[in-house]
Design goal:
Layout lengths: L5 H8 L3 H9 L18 H21 L13 H24 L2 H6 L1 H18 L1 E3 L3 E6 L2 E3 L1 H18 L20 H25 L4 H17 L4 H25 L4 H16 L12 H12 L23 H33 L4 H25 L17 H26 L2
Antiparallel strand pairs: 1-2, 2-3
Helix pairs in contact: 3-4, 3-13, 4-15, 6-7, 7-8, 7-9, 7-14, 8-9, 9-14, 12-13, 13-14, 14-15
């Protein structure tokens, strides 16, 4: 199994005869160990990356929103914006401290309830939610405003991890797609009831609920789920059949949505057409007011060159659309340069590799799949944001985790990272106890 590599970690952490003698000399039983005295436990690398990203968040938000000083139509001053972001950062630090201290088994126990709440809240946004920037649907509960679909991403990963754990003994031989069109036959009904609905149902339901408001988020959930199925040892042939079936159903569904004028099909088509025109369209000079958001981001990156224009010195803060959120990476490069921009991208990739290493040290499926899924979620969202900035992909509306302005995004990204650190903390404590 994938997580059997954790047995190697067991061997590395096994106490030596000398260490056992040392424990006896201190009056301790051989199986006892000294508790960790660290306040912030778990993977130190992830703690460092988290701290660096939070500092960058404050710098980017403060500098990018300086244009508020010159815009009389905005009701929030620069100081108010900075103060609000600092409050969110403090909240993120408190949240990750609490989350990383909780045993991952607690998250496993409450997974299904968490998923159900996220589904209900996401559906509710279509009836009582608020719309911002053409797409994002928000739910307000008193002074708190959040996007439930972002929490649903996390809930889907946890749910899939738990379902796969309960089937590990036979998961590589399970049929998750009916083998016949006679769906009413006892054999096919058993496949659907025992395998298809539990394994694929949460993924499909999440994508269906998310796609009307945020197509790219639904795509991220689907791709991560496929990777998790593969890592969880589901038969590759079954995964392939699932992708083909979903591809066909998705094409028919998008066609129906376009015909009915539902969802965000028109917006997606405009973005793709605009992206194609930027690659293959006319190259004649145009005024600033006529260029796209992505072209503005490319200009900001170009102005940054290798070392940037300097903190707070960027001339692109007025040029770039939403430099504090949708185009935070381009604005960061404009101020700090391409070199630091590449380092920032590597930090996000590093998060995934650390999550992969932590997952490999686990001896049970749930923490392995959870850490890999959540690490991939953070990294995939960051890379998607960055690829849009450099015009490799059409606009998606994905913000930069931990850095872009916004409380719900910061706190939910922190929740994901905190769960990963929780697993690393548990792994570390288990090694100490041996």
């Amino acid at each position: 199994m994938f997580w059997s590599k954790g047995d190697k970690a067991k061997k590395r952490g096994t106490a030596t005869p000398a260490s056992e003698a040392s424990k006896r000399a201190k009056g301790m039983k051989p199986e006892e160990s000294l508790p960790s005295s660290r306040i912030f436990e778990g993977d130190r690398t992830l703690w460092i990356i988290f701290t660096v990203l939070l500092v960058i968040s404050i710098l980017v938000v403060y500098s990018s929103m300086a244009k508020m000083t010159y815009d009389a139509t905005l009701k929030m001053s620069l100081f108010d914006a900075l103060q609000k972001q600092v409050v969110f950062v403090i909240g993120a630090v408190m949240l990750i401290f609490i989350v990383h201290k909780i045993d991952y088994k607690v998250y496993m126990r409450w997974t299904y309830l968490f998923y159900l709440i996220c589904i209900i809240c996401t559906v509710a946004t279509y009836f009582i939610g608020e719309k911002t920037n053409e797409a994002a649907r928000w739910l307000s509960i008193g002074p708190i405003k959040f996007q439930p679909s972002e929490a649903l991403k996390i809930a889907t990963i946890l749910t899939l991890a738990r379902v796969m754990e309960s089937r590990q003994a036979t998961i590589n031989t399970l049929k998750i797609i009916p083998t016949s069109f006679r769906l009413r036959s006892p054999k096919q009904r058993e496949i659907i009831r025992k395998n298809t609905i539990p394994l694929l149902g949460p993924v499909l339901l999440s994508c269906i609920v998310i796609v009307p408001a945020h197509t790219s988020s639904a795509l991220i959930v689907f791709i991560i789920s496929i990777i998790m199925l593969y890592i969880g040892r589901v038969n590759l042939g079954e995964i392939t059949k699932f992708c083909l079936v979903i591809g066909l159903i998705g094409a028919l569904g998008l066609g129906a949505m376009e015909a009915a004028g539902a969802g965000r099909i028109d917006i997606a088509k405009r973005r793709i057409e605009r992206w194609g025109n930027e690659w293959f369209g006319s190259t004649e000079a145009r005024s600033i007011s006529d260029i796209s958001d992505t072209q503005r981001a490319l200009i900001a990156i170009h102005n940054g060159k290798l070392v940037g224009e300097g903190a707070g010195q960027s001339t692109s803060r007025v040029l770039v659309t939403h430099p504090e959120s949708d185009y935070a990476y381009a604005f960061f490069v404009s101020e700090y340069g391409i070199i630091l921009g590449l380092i920032l991208m590597l930090l996000y990739i590093w998060i995934f590799f650390r999550a992969m290493d932590i997952g490999q040290q686990c001896t049970t499926p749930f923490p392995t799949l959870m850490t890999l899924g959540l690490g991939l979620l953070i990294t995939a969202q960051a890379l998607l944001h960055i690829l849009v900035q450099v015009n490799f992909l059409p606009e998606t509306g994905q913000i930069l985790p931990f850095i872009s302005r916004g409380g719900s995004s910061l706190l939910l990204s922190t929740l994901s990272l905190g769960m990963i650190i929780s697993v690393s903390r548990t792994n570390h404590n288990k090694r100490l106890q041996r």
